[in-house]
Structure formats: structure tokens, C-alpha cells
Amino acid sequence: MFESSCLCGANRISFEADSILKMRCHCIDCRKFSGSTNTNNLLVPVAGLKVLKGQLKTYTKTVESGNDMTSYFCDQCGSTLYRQSSMSDKAVAVMIGGIDGLEAIENGRPEHELFVRNRPSWMKAIEGSSQEEGHGLPKVKVPEAV
Ligand SMILES: [Zn+2]
Ligand SMILES: [Zn+2]
């Protein structure tokens, strides 16, 4: 179980389940919406997602893979708490920075890096993490209930 909240505190959500996959994404969309070089996120079953406070806004864009990617964000402070791909209605990618508690970051060491072709030369690959040139994901099983 973990909780995630936005910068202003108007939105708070919780997830019952642990992550299925820990990812770092270097795609251009992640760059643009986060304002940083990349995102670090956790793939988590959507079953067990609870809204504790607020109502997140959504923004949907068709991405390179042809899937629609929807961002769930606070309309007051702009923090994106998670994203969902049309590829699966069973899992969401939770932005690690919104998760409360330092241990989320500590335990969130990515196992899989996506779009590494966009990774800047001054950033190293994460040791032991699988490397994917594009949007490929390893096969993971998403529980329907948690
Ligand atoms: Zn906010
Ligand atoms: Zn991305």
C-alpha cells in the first residue's frame, strides 16, 4: 500500500498493490509533461486505486506506439500523479516523485529503461536494468484484483 499526492495537496490517491515493474522512460512525451530529462515510474495494477481526496484532470495524447496515453494531473498545481495507456486498462504508470515517503524513491530503482535512444550521453544506463531502444516492455502479468 502506498499513497501519492500532488504539489499543492488538493489530490491524494492510494494503491493497494505493489508495483509489477519499475521503469525509467526517456520518451519525448515524458520529457515534455514532466519538464525533466526522463520519468521514473512504477507499473501498478489499477485494481486497488483509491481516490482519497480531490479529482484529477485528464489529458490524452496519441503516442509514438499508436496507443493513447492519458495523464491524470492536478488542475491547480499541475503535478501528474499517474498515466494510463490504452494498451491496458489493468495497469497504470505511477510517477515515483508523487509517492509519499523517501523509501518509495529508494525502493524504486528501475528494472527497465525505455526509449534509451533518447537518453543524453551524460546520463548512464542503470546497472542491471534491461534496456529498450523504443517503447517495448517485458512481458508482465497484471493482477485483475488485489
Ligand atoms: Zn495539486
Ligand atoms: Zn515515456
Automatic annotation (TrEMBL):
GO molecular function: carbon-sulfur lyase activity; metal ion binding
Domain CENP-V/GFA: 2-113
Pfam families xref list: GFA
Metal-binding among keywords: yes
SUPFAM superfamilies noted in UniProt: Mss4-like (SSF51316)
Keyword Zinc attributed: yes
InterPro entries documented for this protein: CENP-V/GFA, Mss4-like_sf
Coiled-coil residue windows: none
Protein name: Mss4-like protein
Species, as recorded: Exophiala viscosa
